[in-house]
UniProtKB/TrEMBL annotation:
Its main location: membrane. It comes from the Archaea. This is Preprotein translocase subunit SecG. It is found in: Cell membrane. Keywords: Cell membrane, Membrane, Protein transport, Translocation, Transmembrane, Transmembrane helix, Transport. One of its GO terms (cellular component) is plasma membrane. It comes from Methanobacterium lacus (strain AL-21). One of its GO terms (biological process) is protein transport.
């Protein structure tokens, strides 16, 4: 009789591609920095709109 305690696991990765294995060049920004820069840009654009209307 065969033993039933041996389990077969799926292969690691399962055909998925990992794109971020290597470090890339460029600025490293945190999510908070991106949100702050977006808010500053939006305020600047709104200020320009009211200045030249």
């Amino acid at each position: 009789m065969a033993k039933k305690d041996k389990q077969v696991l799926p292969p690691s990765g399962a055909g998925l591609v990992r794109y971020f294995e290597d470090e890339t060049k460029g600025p490293k920004l945190s999510p908070e920095q991106v949100v702050i820069m977006t808010v500053v840009l939006a305020v600047f654009c709104i200020a320009l709109r009211f200045t030249y209307s």
